[in-house]
């Protein structure tokens, strides 16, 4: 009879994840770009994420959220995993915890046990902006020199990193945040790498910029379509940040993954399709564009809107790199599910 096994799980706290290279934006962009290519080749199983929303007890609007994102990466990766994500606006008000806190679990399918559990908070922040960066690489004009950004939080920081990686001619970033002190601190952080100008309004940040990125927690639009007409690329990473006309009048519409966006009934994309005002045929997915199967930009003056809701496969491929690096470095804490299984 085969002897029972006590499976080892590598636990990586946030400090371990940092040591293993989570903050390396070029590697994260490469990870995410690979995921889009794998997705286009049918090498990924990625069900629509399960999302539970709860009203904020103080404001009555959405303030708490939990999301489950199971994934299988095939190809040369062969890894199953899941990200469990949570958000709370109360954390932001108190200032004692991050707005979002995530955990990633990597699984061994053959042996049916997890091999790693790690902090996924920074993975989320990095892969979110890496997806925006990959989109900009394939959809923006490569000679874009001015970027307009709204949101100077965690994703704002990683968005600057991503755009500096993929737009080598970028000379200036115009940055706006409701909390000016936060925007000024972020501008100072990047002052040795690029000129970052803090603006007094969202309009001043985006109007006339070549490329745009918004990464806020708002659920209602604050950007007017007429402010965005000079741009060749706009990445909307939040929900409903631009008014409906931006979606309806953009020359090209691209999304990371249409299924979850279509099923998210609070989003403008879903609402416009349901109302019959937006034809699904207009919407392209980024994966076949990255894989070279279709072309989105056919003219330098096109205004392309990219809408991202986030893909669990992005988290899992980054987590797999972190896991393999951590094993090679000998970092992290080894845990056991049991000493002796009760039933076999």
Please supply descriptive tags for the structure shown above.
alpha/beta; Rossmann fold; 12 helices; 8-stranded parallel sheet; 8-stranded mixed sheet; ornithine cyclodeaminase, domain 1; 344 residues; 16 strands
Q: What would you note in describing this structure?
A:
The structure is a single chain. The chain is 34% helix and 26% strand. With 344 residues, it is of the alpha/beta class. It folds into two domains: 8-123 and 312-336, ornithine cyclodeaminase, domain 1 (2-Layer Sandwich); 131-307, NAD(P)-binding Rossmann-like Domain (Rossmann fold, 3-Layer(aba) Sandwich). Helix 5 links the parallel strand 8 and strand 9 (172-176). The radius of gyration is 21 Å and the shape is globular.
In short:
This protein has 344 residues and is an alpha/beta fold.
List the helices and strands and how they pair.
Layout (H helix, E strand, L loop, with lengths): L7 E5 L1 H6 L5 H16 L3 E2 L4 E6 L6 E12 L5 E10 H6 L5 E9 L4 E7 L1 H19 L6 E5 L3 H13 L5 E5 L3 H10 L5 E4 L3 H5 L4 E4 L18 E4 L7 H6 L2 E4 L2 H6 L4 H7 L8 E3 H5 L13 E4 L4 H18 L3 E4 L8
Helix pairs in contact: 2-4, 2-12, 4-5, 4-12
The count of DSSP E runs of length 2 or more, i.e. the number of strands, is: 16
Kindly name the structural category.
alpha/beta
- Describe the sheet with the most strands: 8 strands, mixed
Please state the oligomeric state of the protein chains shown: single chain
Query: So, CATH architecture of the largest domain?
Result: 3-Layer(aba) Sandwich
Let me know the average pLDDT: 94
SSE sequence, one letter per element: EHHEEEEHEEHEHEHEHEEHEHHEHEHE
- Roughly what percent helix? 25-40%
Shape: globular
Figure out the total of helices: 12
Tell me the domain tally. 2
CATH topology assignment of the largest domain: Rossmann fold
CATH homologous superfamily grouping of the largest domain? NAD(P)-binding Rossmann-like Domain
Strand content: 25-35%
Report how far the terminal alpha carbons are from each other: 12 Å
Rg is 21 Å
